[in-house]
């Protein structure tokens, strides 16, 4: 393999990977790879660095944008382009490349199965807080204080300026279940980005609310960036395909944080139907000897899926973490 692709993998901290350089090779020709390594830069500066005319570079930049390999900044004129800064951006953007061959998607899944668990462990040791967190599904939460705006799915959607939906990159590559595929809700700048690339479909607020309700009924968990503003995405995650859930469930790697809430079950109302056991991803609910459901708060991620379908209304959500549990900014 050409060393230039290993160098690209190094740029996102994965030069040691066996598969990431191959993924770069599948999506970027050598001239495109050279351009990526000369970034950041605008079309004129990149043209000078590479010895090409500006029009040729502008065409190449548009192609790289559609492929999900570069991100333009409108803060400069002409726009400054940079390549994805980390694995998450490389994963989420390139998998939605409209021209992605099946072999590319399959190699991504091979990476997730073979290399990702160990990479996730390394990330969990390096970063101060996980990149994402759970927010409760759209239910009434019995809290000591009001649910915060960035914990309320309906509030997040209604206060947004732009909305779109893309296919779930994890289910697109893993296809281990038949849950909703077009399920990643993009918000504001992320929505504008997906629409500009042609990877997203514009949604009204009512359509977005309908989408999250369907996802809740299907047993999908809402996941957002781990900060005190939700202005990028609301993922609707399953337990089997997701980038974060399996490594947490199977390997106990903390790559996602819980919400501020935990489920509690009223033994007087519980009928022991076991519906909540089937809904819980994390094994946080079990039956007592008298066939009453009980919650292990240490395992509960506070998603609220168990409450949605409880036929006897025995499940409520209680606040177990303070408001300042959620950081003001990512890695803050």
User: Strands of the biggest beta sheet: in what spatial order?
Assistant: 6-4-5-8-7-3-9
β-sheet strand percentage: 15-25%
Largest sheet: 7 strands, mixed
End-to-end gap: 39 Å
Describe this structure in words.
This protein is an alpha+beta fold. The protein folds into three domains: 3-114, Arc Repressor Mutant, subunit A, CATH 1.10.10.10; 133-257, no CATH class; 260-322, 2-Layer Sandwich (Alpha-Beta Plaits). The protein contains 15 helices and 13 strands. The protein has helices at 3-11, 20-27, 30-37, 43-50, 54-67, 87-94, 102-114, 116-126, 153-158, 169-174, 189-197, 205-218, 245-251, 275-279, 305-308, and strands at 70-73, 80-83, 132-135, 163-166, 184-187, 201-202, 221-225, 233-237, 256-257, 261-265, 285-287, 293-295, 315-319. Strands 6-4-5-8-7-3-9 form a seven-stranded mixed β-sheet. A two-stranded antiparallel ribbon has the order 1-2. Strands 10-13 form a two-stranded antiparallel ribbon. A hairpin with a 7-residue loop joins β7 and β8. α2 (20-27) packs antiparallel against α7. The longest helix is centred in the first third of the chain and has 14 residues, at 54-67. The protein is elongated. The two termini are 39 Å apart.
Brief summary of the model shown:
The strands form 4 sheets. Strands 6-4-5-8-7-3-9 form a 7-stranded mixed β-sheet. It is an alpha+beta fold. The protein has 15 helices and 13 strands.
């Amino acid at each position: 393999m050409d060393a230039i692709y290993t160098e690209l993998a190094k740029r996102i901290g994965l030069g040691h990977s066996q598969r990431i350089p191959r993924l770069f090779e599948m999506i970027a020709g050598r001239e495109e790879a050279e351009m990526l390594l000369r970034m950041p830069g605008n079309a004129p500066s990149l043209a000078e660095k590479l010895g090409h005319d500006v029009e040729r570079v502008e065409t190449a930049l548009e192609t790289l944008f559609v492929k999900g390999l570069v991100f333009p900044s409108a803060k400069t004129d002409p726009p400054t382009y940079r390549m994805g800064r980390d694995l998450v951006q490389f994963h989420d953007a390139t998998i939605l490349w409209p021209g992605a061959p099946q072999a590319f998607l399959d190699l991504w899944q091979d990476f997730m199965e073979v290399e990702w668990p160990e990479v996730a462990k390394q990330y969990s040791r390096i970063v101060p807080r996980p990149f994402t967190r759970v927010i409760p599904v759209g239910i009434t939460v019995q809290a000591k204080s009001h649910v915060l705006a960035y914990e309320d799915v309906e509030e997040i959607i209604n206060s947004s300026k732009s909305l779109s939906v893309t296919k779930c990159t994890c289910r697109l590559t893993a296809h281990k279940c038949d849950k909703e595929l077009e399920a990643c809700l993009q918000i504001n700048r992320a929505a504008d980005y997906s629409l500009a690339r042609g990877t997203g479909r514009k949604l009204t607020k009512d359509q977005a609310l309908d989408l999250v309700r369907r996802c809740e009924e299907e047993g999908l968990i809402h996941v957002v960036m781990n900060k005190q503003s939700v202005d990028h995405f609301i993922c609707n995650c399953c337990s089997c395909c997701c980038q974060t859930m399996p490594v947490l469930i199977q390997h106990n790697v903390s790559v996602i944080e819980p919400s501020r809430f935990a489920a509690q079950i009223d033994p007087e109302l519980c009928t022991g139907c076991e519906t909540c056991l089937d809904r819980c991803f994390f094994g946080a609910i079990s039956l007592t000897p008298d066939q009453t459901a009980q919650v292990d708060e240490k395992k509960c991620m506070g998603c609220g899926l168990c409450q949605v379908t409880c036929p006897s209304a025995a499940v409520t959500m209680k606040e177990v973490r303070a408001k300042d549990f959620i950081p003001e900014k990512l890695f803050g």
